[in-house]
Amino acid sequence: MMTLQDQHVLIVGGSRGIGAASARLAGSLGAKVSIIYHSNRAAAEAVQEAIGGETSIHQADASVEDELKSAIDVAVAVHGPIFGLVVSAGMFEGLSIDEMTVDFWDRVMAVNLRSTFLSVKHAVPSMRAGGGGSIVIYTSTAGQRGSAIYSAYATSKGAQIMFMRSMALELGPTIRVNCIAPAWTETDMADASLTKLGRDEVAKGFVLGRIGLPEDVAKATCFMLSDAAGFITGTTLTVDGGADMRG
After folding, report:
1. Given 69, 174, 187, 223, which residue has the most CB atoms within 10 angstroms?
2. pTM (predicted TM-score)
3. Could you tell me the CA-to-CA distances from 112 to 27, 105, 119, 142, 159 in Å, in that order?
């Protein structure tokens, strides 16, 4: 049976969407959950209330090193060494190459990629002190296949996969590192795009006939964090309802 009983799981970007769903599920599996959120304290508090138990929330811009390190240090002081790190902070915006500016490109890389590096960098000392653990980084199917208009996003997500593989080699055998690559998922971040494209049309691209839910990814996340996945590292688990088979 999958369990995270009494393990400290820290989720960077855990106040909404997939991160929030994973926080709730980890809490239900017995974890002590730390949620790092960017700006929406009310949303973070709602997740904290839903979990109950040993849950704490901490504000930080995950792309700013001093802020993130401070938040992680406080979380460790509250709940002890980190066992599971989930990197969920990110942004999903697109511009064509004709419209894209250097500032836009840099912002996507900071929010999606720099925050991944900083999360791992500042969580690893605590994980080592506690004897090891598991890291899950949310990439995207766009990072596996590319995406017109969303080229900056896809590039940042592809880079996350290479960072994950490098960290799996560097941090093993005591710390496992994996990615999860969702396809379209019903989150507030994807809502505008799904509305524009039409949900019925998007759903046709899934072999399983529906758009993904945050809970689908949360289940995969908690599996990857738990000892049930104890012999899995350096890989990307695609959670896409068969969408990749559609091309």
Report:
1. 187
2. 0.95
3. 25, 11, 11, 13, 10
